[in-house]
Amino acid sequence: MFSLNHGGILVAMSTAMDDPDVLTEKKDINENMLGGKKVKIIFVLGGPGSGKGTQCSNIVEHFGFIHLSAGELLRAEINSGSENGTMIDTIITEGKIVPSEITIKLLQEAIIKGGNDKYIIDGFPRNEENRVVFESVISISPEFVLFFDCSEEEMERRLLGRNQGRSDDNIETIRKRLKVFVESSLPVIEYYESKGMVKKIDATKPAPEVFEDVKAIFTHMA
Ligand SMILES: Nc1ncnc2c1ncn2[C@@H]1O[C@H](COP(=O)(O)OP(=O)(O)OP(=O)(O)O)[C@@H](O)[C@H]1O
Ligand SMILES: O=c1ccn([C@@H]2O[C@H](COP(=O)(O)O)[C@@H](O)[C@H]2O)c(=O)[nH]1
């Protein structure tokens, strides 16, 4: 598994190390931590349509976290007319994963701009390369990983009914996203599971019941 993405990891890491802006941002985040303002991060993972965004809104409301959706940041980048916009749009339409350095830079900027000390990061890391490059560049380990476990049939049903005008909520792209989730994102969850860091939630239940389980986890957080 590790060797699959090794070349990409090295390229992304060397890009980060060669970019003085990225280095400055990394230093700022580490100084925040060292300056007594420890940044807490929780990764929220699960398949497309498992209910991550829905529950993140509840977590923000009840527990004061800032919600950073990697997918939302990428969609905002497309809409901003950035030079990477067309490339990101094509990748999202294909249900594939955007290069780590792009997503991580957007997350870095949002964390610095957020000015808070606790963040839920929704839909990232999406693959092993994302995970390794984030750990290397940002140097913050998640407190834990919240995993919304849901059947593929239910996720597909929810996405087809979401009706938010997303270009990737069509049956062709949904099937591609589900395949990418199984092939690339589940290994990330398995990695964190092997470290005892995963809190798994049964996400097939109705949303209010799912939130009861989420609440129990956040209420007991140190
Ligand atoms: N527990 C639930 N039961 C039924 N429907 C749900 C539940 N949770 C969320 N939904 C609905 O399913 C759809 C997908 O939910 P949501 O956007 O939260 O998923 P997501 O995991 O963030 O998806 P994506 O990764 O594609 O952004 C939405 O229309 C939402 O209202
Ligand atoms: O870290 C990420 C997060 C998202 N993507 C791409 O965006 C779409 C939509 O993501 P949602 O989490 O469903 O909003 C996803 O299918 C990927 O194509 C990404 O590349 N990297």
Automatic annotation (TrEMBL):
- Binding sites annotated in the UniProt record for ATP: G49, S50, G51, K52, G53, T54, R162, K205
Among InterPro entries, the record links this protein to: Adenylat/UMP-CMP_kin, Adenylat_kinase_CS, P-loop_NTPase, UMP_CMP_kinase
Main localization is cytoplasm
EC numbers, comma separated:
2.7.4.14
- Supply the alphabetized keyword list: ATP-binding, Cytoplasm, Kinase, Nucleotide-binding, Nucleus, Pyrimidine biosynthesis, Transferase
Return the broad EC class.
transferase
Cofactor(s) it depends on: Mg(2+)
Q: What information about domains appears in the record's comments?
A: Consists of three domains, a large central CORE domain and two small peripheral domains, NMPbind and LID, which undergo movements during catalysis. The LID domain closes over the site of phosphoryl transfer upon ATP binding. Assembling and dissambling the active center during each catalytic cycle provides an effective means to prevent ATP hydrolysis.
Please give the function described in this protein's UniProt entry: Catalyzes the reversible transfer of the terminal phosphate group between ATP and AMP. Plays an important role in cellular energy homeostasis and in adenine nucleotide metabolism. Catalyzes the phosphorylation of pyrimidine nucleoside monophosphates at the expense of ATP. Plays an important role in de novo pyrimidine nucleotide biosynthesis. Has preference for UMP and CMP as phosphate acceptors.
Output this protein's name: UMP-CMP kinase
